[in-house]
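Proteins fold reproducibly. Take a sample protein:
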Amino acid sequence: MDCSIATNNEAEYHAINRGLEIAIREGYQRLQIEDDSMLVIETIKQIQQGTLAEKLSKSWRTAWVIIDVKKQLQRLEYTISSHVKRKGNA
């Protein structure tokens, strides 16, 4: 990912995707995902409820990453997603 042209939301999705890849590689099957982006958390919840990943973004670049996130989530037994306030995110 070229960070110089990515939006903040794309960067958030890439970070979630990379974290999922690492967790799966390390053998984790149950995860709690926390993010300070309400948009990202709501997108993950919509994916988990069966919404087509391709319909969750108007940007093809962001949609592509969301599709990857969906594939990673499907490899897990259980995930819970929650929003954390930016102020307490350190």
In short: The beta strands are 30-35, 78-83. The chain has one domain: 8-85. Residues 8-85 form one domain.
